[in-house]
Specification:
Two copies of one chain form a homodimer.
Chain A lengths: L1 E7 L2 E8 L2 E5 L1 E5 L10 H6 L5 E3 L1 H6 L3 H6 L3 H5 L5 E3 L3 H6 L2 E5 L4 E4 L6 E4 L1 H11 L3 E3 L11 H25 L13 E6 L5 H14 L3 E4 L8 H11 L9 E3 L5 H9 L4 E3 L2 H7 L2 E4 L2 E4 L19 H5 L2 H9 L3 H27 L3 H11 L3
Parallel strand pairs in A: 4-5, 4-14, 5-6, 6-10, 10-11, 11-12, 12-13, 13-14
Antiparallel strand pairs in A: 1-2, 2-3, 7-8, 8-9, 15-16
Helix pairs in contact in A: 6-7, 7-8, 8-9, 10-15, 11-14, 13-14, 14-15
């Protein structure tokens, strides 16, 4: 499934094969939480260089429900995206969005943040939902402890996460090819998720336990939850050596352009984050010169492009003064153009990262990038 | 400026020449209130068959201000639309949106609905703003009385509207070619606006007074303000015979697809309305079979296109079930696709209307259309 091409230091350049095409690594997954990238068409994400979309099991289970998506022929057909889709397991959202949750050995009971309905999510159910969605890369159900959780809690939580990972894998293997309710006939990949809080030894233990079970790829979860950047980078360093080199490594929910560059340097292949799309909606735009807060007075009469190095529609067809006007006037087109640009920026960053590794100059690239990118 | 090609009954098929290209009549103007069509790119409006965009003087004066637009090189450059633009005068918005307004002989004082700032709009100022925007077709400042205003009020208001129309024309002629602050070097058109409430004789009087002054086109204002449809059609009939046949006729702010068909039959050439764009945002979609309220339960599992006769993106790439999901999930893509479709529907209706007049079968077309279009 995963193939190496080239390394530059610990940074890796490879390909990841899925039932919906091969992905060039390292890559960033544009977020399409509820089966739609905020304001963008799938064809636009593709044109910007998007290779894969991430959707959320939790959101799609609540609305419209996986059975409707399955009836549509799966999420690819439902949302009209023919590239690969990764779905998370819903674990993180249960802990961050849902009201009142009760953790049990068997699974987690929670109330929908939409209508208060009580839902019981088990490891098996999480995989079943993802299979009905027709996901290309599925994630195990995990528990993500808070950054300040004490060691006793994290240890207990880790045991549960490992047990659930095993149960997910058993259910996945049993049903991936012949369950009548699965959507795709193509075998999909299942990824484990390393937890262990901010403890080196627990991260190592988690990685080893998951590798013993055996997954198609390994994610690092529970980071970027409020800890300092240095701690996050440290936890990546504590985990990566215990993951197999022939499987893809996915840093979940990270991060800023700086974080991505730092993590690639530490051997990470896959990323997802709401930053480009969410920040776009708040007028917080990523450019080759750094962050532009488009509502700032200084852009009122600025008829230059948002980012002269960017080839997206927002940068080639409009000026900062117009983008500022759209933002101040709360125009829908503002959300759309800002999102388009930020996604273009992230996808373009990944292209530059891949080229730098190919030319075995990732270290230099990283230095140049961080020097130019002003926060 | 306006040229006849063909009639079918009283329905007229012609062309209207502007500095930014020739428009085929009858036509519908997509609303771009604040210099942007809600959620759509100018290139998309064009691809759907949009020939002209309408923008609002009131909104653009308040934000970003006509001086910024002028510095950008005019509204066409600011919003990146190279087709014709019609701007209203702000009169209607002062009466419908602004807080506390004082009508004076000289103009109207009002408070901005955005920040409460006191603004004094005169006929001359309304034209100056439109000239700074670089509008192709400008409208005179008028007063629009409420549908239930008494005759004494309407008579007084009409006198003011006629006086203001004359002042607008004087100012327009004086400045159209050599005022240093005007944006376009191309002469633009100025339209008068017939008022007169729901009184046949006052409508006639208004039309005759405006024709005496002499404008490039004539609008009928003050309709679709709450009166019954029959009254509106009646007022059109009371006005049209008093307008010259060699000038375009514009029914302001109207209307439903049915209204448009009825008005074309009565000799109207131009329309604008917020219905397609505003209703789109409320999930109220126009189709060849009638109105679809996309949030309805019945579309949950409906994997057919929204309108099988429509060639827009929303209809060719997605299903009703997906459009319903996007609407329920309050996705930005829902606003975008719904707007795209409704604009496509209106622009396509105008194409069908033009073809029917060309084939001298407008009466039959009208009957077929109204039979199929279920409200």
């Amino acid at each position: 499934m995963f193939k190496y091409i080239q390394t530059s230091g610990k940074a890796r350049r490879g390909t990841l094969k899925t039932a919906h095409g091969e992905i060039q690594t390292p890559f960033f997954m544009t977020i399409g939480t509820a089966g739609a990238v905020k304001g963008l068409l799938p064809s636009e994400v593709r044109a910007l260089g998007g290779q894969i979309i991430l959707s959320n099991t939790y959101h799609l289970h609540l609305r419209p429900g996986e059975d409707i998506v399955a009836k549509a022929g799966g999420l690819h057909k439902f949302m009209n995206w023919d590239g690969p889709i990764l779905t998370d397991s819903g674990g993180y959202q249960v802990f961050s969005l849902a009201k009142i949750r009760k953790l049990k050995d068997d699974g987690v009971e929670f109330q929908s943040h939409l209508n208060g309905e009580t839902i019981f999510l088990t490891p098996e159910k999480a995989i079943e939902i993802q299979m009905k969605l027709g996901s290309d890369i599925m994630m195990v159900l995990d528990e993500c402890p808070a950054a300040d959780a004490d060691r006793t809690y994290v240890e207990k939580s880790l045991k549960l996460t490992t047990d659930w990972a095993k149960r997910c894998q058993t259910f996945f293997i049993k049903n991936r090819r012949d369950a009548p309710w699965r959507v795709s006939t193509n075998p999909s990949g299942l990824f484990g998720i390393v937890q262990g809080g901010m403890h080196h030894d627990l991260r190592k233990q988690s990685a080893q336990q998951l590798v013993d079970i055996g997954f198609d790829g390994y994610a690092i979860g529970g980071l970027s939850v409020g800890e300092p950047n240095a701690t996050m980078y440290n936890m990546i360093d504590a985990t990566v050596p215990h993951l197999p080199t022939d499987k893809p490594r996915y840093l979940m929910g990270v991060g800023t352009p700086q974080d991505i560059v730092e993590a690639v340097e530490r051997g990470i292949d896959m990323f997802d984050c709401v930053l480009p799309t969410r920040n776009a909606r708040h007028g917080h735009l990523f450019t080759s010169q750094g962050i532009v807060r488009i509502k700032n007075e200084q852009y009122k009469n600025d008829f230059t492009p948002l980012d002269p190095e960017c080839q997206c529609l927002a940068c080639t067809q409009f000026t900062k003064a117009y983008l500022r006007h759209l933002f101040m006037a709360k125009e829908i087109l503002s959300l759309r153009l800002n999102t388009l640009h930020n996604v273009a920026f992230y996808l373009n960053l990944m292209k530059q990262i891949r080229a730098a590794i190919e030319n075995d100059r990732f270290g230099e690239f990283k230095k140049e990038f961080l020097d130019n990118f002003k926060v």
